[in-house]
Amino acid sequence: MNVFEKAKILGIAGKYDSCGPNMCEVKVNNGLGGIYHAKAEHKTCRIFKTLMDNNCSFDCKYCGNANSCAKKKASYEPKELATLFDYLNKKLDVHGLFLSSAVSGSPDDVTEKMIESIRLIREKYNFNRYVHFKVLPGTSYDLIKRASELSTRMSINIEAPNKEVLSELSSCKDYKTDILKRQAWISRLNLRSGQTTQMIVNNLSTDKDILRMSNWEYTKLRLKRVYYSSFRPVKGTPLEEEKPVSLTRQNHLYNVDFLMRRYNYNVKEFNQIMDNGMLPDEDPKISLAKKTFDSALDINEASYDELIRVPGIGPKTAKRILKIKIKKYEDLHKLGGHVKRAKPFIKVNGWRQKMLGEY
Ligand code: SF4
């Protein structure tokens, strides 16, 4: 099998990992898999996202690379991957690498190969831009440390909000030892872009459990991002007959996650809009505002904490509102507010234009 055939198999095998910025796949005319446009911090760049090996000895029930799943198997040698990446960098404008792997044999053996690939990419081919290194569950501390010295960002997939759910999905991963302990190690290392993780959104976990765990990851381990991946059944896996989880549920988790990280909402606030631990089928900020504001808020009297809880008003707009008097809705628009979203919840000049029931 030549290296381009491997790139196709291992690029496609790596696409389910969403532990990085939002990505959309780039079609390239030589049929290579795994090249994506990634958007991060308002910049777009091409990332090569691949597995080192897709022949896993673990048994995660949702994964197309697990040991019981029939598929084409492939793996790179470090020199092969480094040379391929140098080619993609120079010929196809690929400026980042996202390297993950199935656990073929022991996590340390595969990690050694991943480290050697990146060492060659950095030292032989002088590549100094983005490298995301996926840590495999159970990898030893020394290897994680060595990988961190070559990487921009690292992640290990937590997959589930607690050990009970993970044990339903995999008999090979120990939640506390193989994952949380490794995350704690990574959080103490010096990484330019920090650490991220991914959680699968499935019917075994409630939104409440998922968000509680995300909050723990942000506050205790200082993760940069938790990515949510709604469950999609993969053909040939034990869960192939299960129903997929809606993207709407995934998106509402992202909405709450954003409000926690950027607006400093407390995760417990969302308990009041949940039903049996599940968020409603509505924008969570609007749902929460409907519970919070039993009467319209006078926009010129409101505090910062009240203002950022109004739909259509974010932290920047809230800070601007505190400095001037709003006389009409147009003033709010000029300060960056989304008037249509905010109107049912605010009074301007003692007057509310739209009632909550009309929302
Ligand atoms: S460890 Fe689990 S999720 Fe990762 S490749 Fe192996 S089977 Fe798939």
Topology record:
Elements: H1 3-13, E1 22-25, E2 35-40, E3 43-51, H2 78-91, E4 96-100, H3 107-123, E5 130-134, H4 141-150, E6 153-155, H5 163-169, H6 175-187, E7 195-201, H7 207-220, E8 225-230, H8 247-262, H9 284-292, E9 297-298, H10 304-307, H11 315-323, H12 329-334, H13 339-342, E10 346-347
Parallel strand pairs: 3-4, 4-5, 5-6, 6-7, 7-8, 9-10
Antiparallel strand pairs: 1-2, 2-3
The protein binds iron/sulfur cluster.
Let me know the CATH homologous superfamily of the largest domain.
Aldolase class I
Class per helix and strand makeup: alpha/beta
CATH class of the largest domain: Alpha Beta
What Rg, in angstroms, do the CA atoms define? 23 Å
CATH architectural category of the largest domain = Alpha-Beta Barrel
Q: Quaternary state, please?
A: single chain
What's the arrangement of strands in the largest beta sheet? 1-2-3-4-5-6-7-8
Shape from CA axes? globular
CATH structural fold name of the largest domain: TIM Barrel
| N-end to C-end Cα span | 59 Å
Instruction: Name the ligand types.
Output: iron/sulfur cluster
Compressed to H and E, one letter per element, the order equals HEEEHEHEHEHHEHEHHEHHHHE
Give the tally of β-strands.
Answer: 10
**Poorly predicted sequence stretches spanning 5 or more consecutive residues:** none
What do these coordinates show?
The protein has 13 helices and 10 strands. Helix 2 crosses helix 3, helix 3 (107-123) runs parallel beside helix 4 (141-150) and helix 7 packs parallel to helix 8 (247-262). By secondary structure, the protein is α/β, with parallel strands linked by helices. The protein is 37% helix and 14% strand. It has helices spanning 3-13, 78-91, 107-123, 141-150, 163-169, 175-187, 207-220, 247-262, 284-292, 304-307, 315-323, 329-334, 339-342; strands at residues 22-25, 35-40, 43-51, 96-100, 130-134, 153-155, 195-201, 225-230, 297-298, 346-347. Strand 5, helix 4 (141-150) and strand 6 (153-155) form a beta-alpha-beta unit. The chain has 2 domains: 3-245, Alpha-Beta Barrel (TIM Barrel), CATH 3.20.20.70; 293-358, no CATH class. The chain has an 8-stranded mixed sheet. It has a two-stranded parallel sheet with strand order 9-10.
